[in-house]
Amino acid sequence: MPTISVIIAIYNRKDELFELLNSLTHQTDKDFEVIIVDDGSQINLKPTADLFHQSLSIKFFWKDNSGPGLSRNYGAKRVHAQDVAQSWLVFVDSDVIVEQDYIENIRKNLSEISCDAFGGADKAHKGFNLMQKAISYSMTSVFTTGGIRGSKKAISKFQPRSFNMGVRQSAFEKVGGFSEMRIGEDPDLSMKLWENGFSTAFFDDIGVYHKRRVDFGKFSKQVYQFGCARPILNQRHPEYVKFSFAFPSLFFLGYILGFLEYFMFHNGLILGFYGFYTFLVFFHALYKTRNVSIAALAVISTYIQMFSYGFGFLKSWILLNVIRQKPEDAFPHHFYK
Question: Domains in the chain, please, with CATH?
Answer without folding.
Answer: 3-120+160-212 (3.90.550.10), 234-334 (no CATH)
